[in-house]
């Protein structure tokens, strides 16, 4: 097993409160609407706050992945920080033994913010995660945030 981490950040042209609500608090509702080509459906066990689990079911376009179940460890509305850990599905058992995300949303203007993601993982085998897999891990949050941004800009009443 080899531990690793990667980070990324992306600026979005939406207020921190709107992107927080859409991407952290209501992701299980909005992602299947915003990115239906990859998210077939989502369920939540709990109220969405820390301690809840969210299961995202994927379409065949996300193959070989079929679903991922995430445990919400932190959902801090004051600092706009969330932490969650994959507990089932996704890359677990394929290439990763564990997989966790910390996402922080920081305002940089009235209608813009920076979304910073830190991803920590442990590989199953004794080798490092191949660079192409690390790139996929870092690209995914950026693509998702840009999709959420585009949806919110096109729908100004959502998460307002």
TrEMBL record:
It comes from the Eukaryota. SUPFAM superfamilies: Bet v1-like (SSF55961). One of its GO terms (cellular component) is nucleus. One of its GO terms (biological process) is defense response. Residues 1-155 form the Bet v I/Major latex protein domain. Gene3D superfamilies: 3.30.530.20. Belongs to the BetVI family. This is Bet v I/Major latex protein domain-containing protein. It comes from Ensete ventricosum (Abyssinian banana).
